[in-house]
Amino acid sequence: MLDRIAEFLIFGFAPLMVGMLVSTDMSAAAERRLTGEVIYREHMILPANAVLTVQLLDTSQSDAPAKVICEQRITPAGQVPMRFTLKFDSRDIRPKTTYAVDATITVDGQTQFLTNARHYIDPLASEPMTMVLKQVQDKQGDTATPG
User: Fold this and answer.
1) If DSSP states are collapsed to H, E and C, what string results for the chain?
2) Are 74 and 82 in contact (CB under 8 A)?
3) Environment class of residue 125 by beta-carbon count within 10 Å: exposed (0-12), middle (13-18) or buried (19+)?
4) Average pLDDT of the chain, as a whole number
């Protein structure tokens, strides 16, 4: 009887437990986070329906639109500084590829603030970042006034 229990533990239960631990470890190791905050220089309060969208982009193809690796939408956006956390799978990051982070603030579907320059990063080695957004100008040259 003890031989059968030992046989079950050695050949049945132990490999099952090892397999579960290894697969859990592998999936947890693949998830990465990129954190930071978004600010703008204008002294204004955003309306309650403002939406902050932050994206991690693959910008390595100069003749094609950037590929979105991950995105976070924060509704309502709140007030500055607005903190974000982009979660992505490290297996989606390829060596010798160019990555950037982009952010926009929209109100009622209209872009009010955006990044006016690319924020190039190494997603696997990045420190927390601060992105300064620029207010969008309307067609007459006046600044857009959300809310």
Assistant:
1) CHHHHHHHHHHHHHHHHHHHHHHHHHHHHHEEEEEEEEEECCCCCCCCCEEEEEEEEECCCCCCCCEEEEEEEECCCCCCCEEEEEEEEHHHCCCCCCEEEEEEEEECCEEEEECCCCEEECCCCCCCEEEEEEECECCCCCECCCC
2) yes
3) exposed
4) 83
Residues 25-57 have pLDDT tens digits of 455 558 999 999 999 999 899 999 999 999 999
Q: pTM score, two decimals?
A: 0.73
Average pLDDT, stretch 5-14?
Answer: 61
